[in-house]
C-alpha cells in the first residue's frame, strides 16, 4: 500500500470518527442530565460494551501476540487514552455544556504540536503554526456566537481540558505501539484494563440505576455512545494514527463544533448566520494548513532532493 493511499485511508477514518464525535457530546450530555445516569454508570457502560465488542471482533481475526515489553506500555496507554480521556470526559461533560466542551477540544492541536515537538522532534513550521492559529480563531468565533446565557461549571471545563490533555499525551507518547499493533488488538486490551480498574468502584452505581424508567430514545442514545462513539470511533482512530502525524490527527477536533452546529440546523434547533459561515471557513482553512504542513521526514527528503539537484 502506497503512502498516499495510507494517508487517504487515515483521513477517511478520522472524518467518520469526527462525525460520530460530533454527536457524542450532545448525546452524552442528555444521558448525564438530571433523571439520567451518573458519570460512573456512563463510564462503566462504555468500557464494558467496548470491551465485549472488541474482544468479540478479535475472535474473527488472526490473533496477534503482544510482546512482553509492550504490556506495560499498553497499561499506561489505557490509563491515558481510555480511562483518563473517556473517564474524565464523562465527569466534565456532566458539569458543563457540549458547546464549552467543543471549545476546549480545540486546545488539542496546540498541545499536541508542543508535545510532538518535544518528544518526536516534529518541526513547528510557519504553515502549521498559522493553521493552528486560524483554526482556533474560527472555533472560538463559532462557539462564542452560539453560547447561551448562563455560566458553565469551571470545574467541568477544567476536567474537559484534562481529558484532552490525557488523549494528546496518549497519541504522542505511544505512537510506537499504535504503529505496531492492529486497532482491534490495541483497543481490546486497553478497554479490558480500564474495565477491570473501574468495575469495583462503579458497579454499585450501575446496580442502583433505575433502568426501567428510561424510554426507547434514551437507550438508542446510549447505544450510539457505546457502539459508535466507543467501538467504531476507537477502531477508526488507530487507522488514522498509523497513517498521519499527531498534529494532523488533532486538527480534526476543529470540525467538531462545525458538525454540532450542522446537526442543530438539521434538527431545527439553530439557524444559519453569516457569523457561522465565516467561522466554518476559518476552521477548515486551519485544518487544511495543518494537514498540508511538512513532517520531519518530508523536510529531510526535500533536503536530499535539493542536495542532489545542486550536485
Automatic annotation (TrEMBL):
Subcellular location: Cell membrane
Pfam family, one: EamA
Keywords assigned by UniProt, alphabetized: Cell membrane, Membrane, Transmembrane, Transmembrane helix
Signal sequence segment: none
Membrane topology: Multi-pass membrane protein
Gene Ontology CC annotation, any one: plasma membrane
EamA domain boundaries: 9-143, 156-291
UniProt-recorded name of the protein: Membrane protein
Organism classification: Bacteria, Pseudomonadati, Bacteroidota, Bacteroidia, Bacteroidales
Amino acid at each position: 500500500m502506497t503512502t498516499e493511499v495510507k494517508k487517504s485511508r487515515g483521513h477517511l477514518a478520522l472524518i467518520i470518527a469526527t462525525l460520530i464525535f460530533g454527536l457524542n457530546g450532545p448525546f452524552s450530555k442528555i444521558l448525564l442530565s438530571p433523571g439520567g445516569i451518573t458519570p460512573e454508570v456512563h463510564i462503566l457502560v462504555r468500557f464494558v460494551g467496548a470491551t465485549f465488542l472488541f474482544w468479540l471482533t478479535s475472535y474473527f481475526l488472526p490473533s496477534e501476540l503482544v510482546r512482553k515489553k509492550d504490556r506495560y506500555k499498553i497499561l499506561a496507554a489505557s490509563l491515558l487514552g481510555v480511562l483518563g480521556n473517556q473517564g474524565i470526559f464523562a465527569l466534565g461533560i456532566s458539569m458543563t455544556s457540549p458547546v464549552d466542551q467543543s471549545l476546549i477540544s480545540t486546545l488539542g492541536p496546540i498541545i499536541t504540536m508542543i508535545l510532538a515537538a518535544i518528544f518526536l522532534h516534529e518541526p513547528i513550521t510557519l504553515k502549521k503554526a498559522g493553521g493552528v492559529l486560524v483554526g482556533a480563531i474560527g472555533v472560538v468565533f463559532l462557539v462564542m456566537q452560539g453560547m447561551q446565557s448562563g455560566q458553565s461549571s469551571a470545574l467541568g471545563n477544567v476536567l474537559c481540558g484534562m481529558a484532552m490533555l490525557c488523549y494528546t499525551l496518549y497519541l504522542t507518547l505511544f505512537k510506537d505501539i499504535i504503529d505496531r499493533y492492529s486497532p482491534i488488538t490495541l483497543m481490546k486490551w486497553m478497554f479490558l484494563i480500564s474495565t477491570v480498574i473501574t468495575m469495583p468502584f462503579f458497579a454499585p452505581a450501575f446496580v442502583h440505576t433505575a433502568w426501567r424508567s428510561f424510554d426507547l430514545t434514551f437507550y438508542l442514545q446510549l447505544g450510539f455512545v457505546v457502539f459508535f462513539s466507543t467501538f467504531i470511533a476507537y477502531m477508526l482512530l488507530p487507522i488514522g494514527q498509523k497513517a498521519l502525524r499527531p498534529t494532523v490527527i488533532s486538527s480534526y477536533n476543529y470540525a467538531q463544533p462545525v458538525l454540532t452546529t450542522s446537526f442543530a440546523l438539521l434538527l431545527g434547533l439553530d439557524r444559519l448566520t453569516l457569523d457561522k459561515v465565516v467561522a466554518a471557513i476559518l476552521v477548515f482553512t486551519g485544518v487544511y494548513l495543518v494537514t498540508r504542513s511538512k513532517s520531519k521526514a518530508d523536510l529531510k527528503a526535500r533536503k536530499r532532493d535539493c542536495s542532489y539537484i545542486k550536485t
